[in-house]
Specification:
Blueprint lengths: L15 H6 L15 E6 H11 L13 H17 L3 E5 L7 H6 L5 H4 L4 H9 L3 H10 L4 E2 L6 H11 L3 E5 L14 E8 L3 E5 L1 H8 L6 H8 L14 H11 L2 H9 L5 H8 L1 H11 L20 H9 L4 H11 L1
Helix pairs in contact: 2-3, 3-16, 10-11, 10-14, 12-13, 15-16
């Protein structure tokens, strides 16, 4: 989100290593970088989840709200403890509604930008918390990474494609399902907090949506997403979108068949709105080629604990930040 961008350029669920690597045959900690695990956290997704799940009664010593930051650190500590990553990075929204996406489709997230929207109300509640949150993350040796006029999902896409070994993406944003690549990239999708999650791999996508495991983007373009102001192709809902993708394999083939006069009635709907489809594909596609500056995501272990805890105490965050430090060490 623009105003909050302070960044540099089921309970008992199995651990992420077990889910991705196939259980106990993999050691808990690997020494070979190629077999490492990188945890990429969608920071806005996590702090919004924390904002609405952590009581407003949690305040700084001066009485200011700090519940989102409090919940964020607690949940991040749980993620690190449960999944034991070798590398960790937090991605931020330099813009939650990038101008280039709006130029392609004007309705992109337009209702969220409206005066009096739930988004605006949440931003007001977060305005003083996010700078504190990001500052303490940096003190903990956890980079917060953004890129001008791009969303956290784009930063995650770029980092995921650069990472060594396996990658786990924590986010409640299903757009990130398009990055799933067995066995290298999975999405940890929250069901209840961070203690109950679905590990989204290609098999999950195939079973849940009835499409090829790497075709989520094409499916999402056709179906649309009202929560993001993307209407989809008129007359094509989730079932028709899935059937088209399952039959033709990918969006370009669907467009080619539609423009070639294919007899499937659904192709006619695509043909009539092919300009929208092409623009929506650019909006929905995560930018994996951002020119991010090199950043060290190595898991920090030897940190100035007393200094960090003292800084956290000023904001009433001593407990959750200590929990994160314990998990990291």
């Amino acid at each position: 989100m623009r105003s909050l961008a302070h960044v540099y350029s089921s309970t008992g669920s199995p651990s992420l290593r077990e889910a991705i690597f196939g259980g106990s045959q993999w050691p808990r900690k690997l020494n070979v970088v190629a077999d490492s695990l990188t945890l990429l956290v969608d920071a806005p997704s996590l702090f919004y989840r924390a904002l609405f799940s952590t009581p407003d009664s949690i305040r700084t010593p001066e009485g200011a709200p700090i519940n989102a930051a409090h919940g964020f650190f607690r949940m991040l500590a749980r993620l690190v403890q449960d999944h034991d990553p070798d590398f960790i990075g937090c991605a931020a929204d330099a813009s939650w509604r990038p101008s280039w996406r709006v130029e392609l489709i004007e309705s992109y997230k337009d209702f969220r930008a409206a005066p009096g929207s739930a988004q605006e109300a949440a931003e007001e509640r977060l305005a003083n918390q996010v700078p504190i949150l990001y500052g303490l993350l940096e003190m903990c040796g956890l980079p917060v990474i953004g890129h001008q006029d791009y969303e956290a999902e784009d930063v995650i896409g770029a980092l995921a494609h650069r990472a060594p070994g396996r990658v786990a993406i924590f986010s409640g944003d299903r757009d990130l399902f398009q990055l799933v690549r067995d066995p290298d990239i999975a999405v940890v999708y929250p069901i209840r907090g961070v203690s109950q999650v679905d590990v989204v791999d290609e098999a999950y996508i195939e079973k849940r949506y009835g499409i090829p495991g790497r075709a989520y983007r094409d499916f999402a373009v056709l179906r649309g997403d009202p929560s993001d102001g993307l209407p989809g192709v008129k007359g094509i809902g989730e079932k028709l979108a899935a059937s088209l993708v399952a039959r033709y394999g990918d969006l370009e083939t669907i467009i080619r068949e539609a423009e070639g006069g294919g007899r499937n009635p659904s192709l006619g709907k695509v043909k009539r709105q092919v300009d929208y489809v092409r623009r929506a594909a650019r909006v929905v596609t995560i930018a994996t080629d951002l020119p991010l500056e090199p950043v060290d995501l190595s898991r920090p272990r030897n940190l100035p604990r007393a200094e960090i805890v003292a800084a956290a105490k000023r904001f009433g965050l001593e407990g959750p930040v200590t929990a994160l430090l314990d998990a990291l060490s």
